[in-house]
Amino acid sequence: MLTNVWRTLDKILTDLRSLPFTSNTPLRGIRGEGCKDIRRHLHCGNAFVLLINKLHPPALLYRIVFTYGDLRPDNITVEMAEDYSYIITGLIDWEYSRFYLEYYKAAKSTNCLSPYEEDDWYLFLPDCVSPKRYAYWWLLDRVRETRVV
Length: 149
Known about the structure:
By secondary structure, the protein is of the alpha+beta class. The chain has one domain (about 1-145): Aminoglycoside 3'-phosphotransferase, Chain: A, domain 2 (Alpha-Beta Complex). It has helices at about 1-15, 45-55, 105-110, 135-145; strands at about 65, 75-80, 85-90, 100. A hairpin with a 5-residue loop joins strand 2 (about 75-80) and strand 3 (about 85-90). InterPro entries: Kinase-like_dom_sf. It comes from Aspergillus indologenus CBS 114.80. This is Aminoglycoside phosphotransferase domain-containing protein.
């Protein structure tokens, strides 16, 4: 039964990721607001930033897609149908939704995951935003996050 929810969520997110992005414009939200990174208040050494920036390939290799910014169970509304299956009825909390590089959501989808996490939600992330799909970027972001002080 929950497989249907997972498939539906993957379809919703895939459809959102197909919204057109105007070339040669800054990454932004639908209304022109800038990108947000919840870690923007953190600082790290310049040498560390320079090294991390040298480790990744040019962003030009990736598409720019619309990204639902706060994917977590609390923001997915679900109802039970008469046949006892579950139906996604909506996504709430669009504050961090923007156009980002396609791997961004995979890197950010596990921001709250720690080595001691018992919530298995992270194991069921939809394919289109799964860390499995963008493993390199996910790992690089985790290194950056654990070293930023």
